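Reopening: structure tokens for the SN-glycerol-1-phosphate complex, inputs below.
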Amino acid sequence: MNTIFLNIINSKAKDEKLLAVLIDPDKMSPTNVSCFIAKVNQSVATHIFVGGSEVRENATEVLVIEIKKHTNLPVVIFPGDVTQITQKADAILFLSLLSGRNPDYLIGKHVEAVSKLKNSNLEVIPTGYILIQNGKKTSVQRVSKTEPIKREDITQIVHTAKAGELLGKKLIYLEAGSGATHAIDTNIIEKVAEQINIPLIVGGGIRNKATMNAIYKAGADLIVIGNAFEEDETFFNELKKKSD
Ligand code: 1GP
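Re-run output (same inputs, fresh job):
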């Protein structure tokens, strides 16, 4: 039942780095899925995340059904809201926005989600989600009405990640925000990775292989990329799987 989480743990133990392609149901039409997923399948991507801050009702389920017709990669919901939960996916990142102090995003939405999760086969992965300031207002900030942690406040970032681990979160996700101008500083990633023992996800504003490699080297176990693939599908060419 914990297959996806256990695979992440096993990869971390072997230092095999993971890559999730993030697909926003509001930006991807189901008719474009097969062509896009063909490129994902040929790349080193290991996971497909589906979600967004604001998504039309049912759009996520329709998209997940279509994606699963074209790939065997695990499809993980990365929800901005309860309405995005669908049983058609393999797992859900059950996100607590630990950087903010809005009770709805710390526990309220989670209580609402229980009726959808209690009899479901979805693998639920408790995830501490930490938004870090990157110079422009992000949609997470706007929708959740919370402030990100300042990027200079490294102690607060590290302690927030550690508090998440101590609370029992199974993953920590450091987020610069979708389309961030700059990815999270490697210095921040190093400090967090040194202090936590659970897998570390990093996303937001990652647009090239050099940045990916630097972020992996700093200690990220899984990188999430959305915009860079939406804007330029040729980026997949740089991330082709090596043929055996
Ligand atoms: C956003 O971390 C993800 O929630 C990915 O961000 O779209 O900027 O790659 P990008």
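The two ends are 31 Å apart (CA to CA). The chain has one domain: 3-231. Marking as resolved unless the reporter disagrees.
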